[in-house]
Design goal:
single chain, about 400 residues, alpha/beta, eight-stranded mixed β-sheet, 19 strands, about 35% helix, about 25% strand
């Protein structure tokens, strides 16, 4: 990891997909985050974005050709590969992903990818069918196995008119993620962090269940931030449609009981436990093996008896020895008061609370605003992207954990 002695130096690789038109915006966002940027275009990328547009916003002249004598004279490609603190490829087409996965170095960009020792990030952008193709998924898996961080892709409408995964992540989110990963102090180096994320599902019958609107984004962002800070991270995830962050052990669960079992099994080996998941408080008293039919119910509708699920955070915080315990609370009223009471009642070291009645920071939002409450005070974090929230929380929690360890 680099220090603050210089701006974070990023090689921005741009391949030939329609999302390349966003490259100038991505350069601007990287520079706002404090990065120094050298754009590197493939031959086809130049069909979607011009060198002139990139030159207007970048710190350095765009590079396009392995055989550019003038550019090589000022900074050769091997020197350029060593100069970088990170290599970011956005957009990364299916073709470029395939070439990288197989170690092909037939142009400047792929040669730099092989020559650099810096972390490499790719932001895929392609048609949904291309993304879902078995060959692409094999190539993505190979890149991840090689240590490449895959950013996205997002779901949504694509330039071809189809819907689904394949959209490149937005420039703001890419810039924030990469600069955070490259510049994050390793304040949790040597620690083991256990994180829960997402909702749980409590089944009434094989097709119906009780759940909530948690997307898992904040928990996954927290796991990534902990990893970037040097921690060995295990992520226990409820049913969500999110890719596993590189370098993180993921354990998939469905019900609250499954999540409790997974956490209990691993808590003794963790230094810090962060419960971000929105765990169902109740489950049906009876689970039916077959789908319930309307004809089986009383004339005035179905009645479901519920029983309380065991409290995961309380169970972990109530035993000794135990990890440093941080809980999350999603409230709709009197948020701070309820969170303070919950922290004390469950003996948590700290709790993070947000008001999910605000649609701008509630479930399914990419932003959040929270307050961290601990024994020594409270820290308010105003609205910002969830990855930024996670990064700030990691710094605060690491400081609290260090003080607790000294005590």
């Amino acid at each position: 990891m680099q220090t603050d002695n210089h701006a974070r130096r990023i090689l921005l690789g741009i391949s030939g997909g329609i999302a390349a038109y966003k490259a100038p915006s991505l350069v601007r966002n990287l520079r706002v985050e404090g990065a120094e940027v050298v754009p590197v275009l493939t031959r086809n990328a130049s069909k979607f974005v011009t060198e002139t547009a990139l030159q207007a916003v970048a710190d350095h002249r765009p590079r396009t050709d392995l055989w550019d004598a003038e550019a090589e004279a000022s900074m050769g490609h091997i020197e350029l590969a060593r100069w970088a603190d990170a290599v970011l490829i956005a957009p990364a087409t299916a073709d470029l992903v395939a070439r990288m996965a197989h170690g092909i170095a037939d142009d400047l960009l792929t040669t730099l990818c092989l020559a650099t020792a810096a972390p490499v990030f790719v932001a895929p952008a392609m048609n949904v069918k291309m993304w879902e193709h078995a060959a692409t998924q094999r190539n993505i898996d190979r890149l991840r196995a090689d240590g490449v961080t895959v950013l996205g892709p997002d779901d949504g409408e694509q330039a071809c008119g189809e819907f689904g995964p394949g959209r490149m992540m937005e420039p703001e989110e890419i810039a924030e993620t990469v600069t955070a990963a490259v510049g994050t102090p390793r304040v949790l180096a040597g620690t083991r962090v256990l994180v829960t994320a997402g909702p749980t599902r409590e089944f009434l019958d094989p097709v119906r269940f009780i759940s909530n609107r948690s997307s898992g984004r904040q928990g996954f962002a927290f796991a990534e931030a902990a990893r970037n800070a040097g921690a060995d991270v295990t992520l226990v995830a409820g049913p969500v449609h999110l890719a596993t962050p590189t370098g993180i052990e993921r354990v998939d669960v469905v019900s609250a009981q499954e999540m409790k079992d997974a956490v209990t099994e691993r808590a003794a080996g963790a230094d810090i436990f962060v419960s971000v998941a929105a765990v169902a408080d109740y489950r049906p008293h009876t689970t039916h093996d077959q789908k319930l039919k309307k004809s089986d119910q009383e004339s005035d509708g179905i009645r479901v008896a519920l029983k309380e699920n065991e409290d995961i955070v309380g169970a972990i915080a109530g035993v000794e020895p135990r990890p440093f315990v941080v809980g999350f609370a999603a409230e709709t009223q009197n948020a701070l008061q309820y969170a303070r009471e919950k922290r004390a009642r469950k003996r948590m070291d700290a709790i993070v609370v947000n008001d999910v009645s605000d649609a701008a920071i509630g479930f399914d939002s990419s932003d959040n605003a929270v307050t961290l409450i601990h024994g020594g005070g409270e820290v308010e974090l105003s609205k910002m992207p969830k990855r930024a929230i996670a990064r700030r929380l990691i710094a605060e929690i690491a400081a609290l954990y260090a003080v607790a360890g000294q005590g």
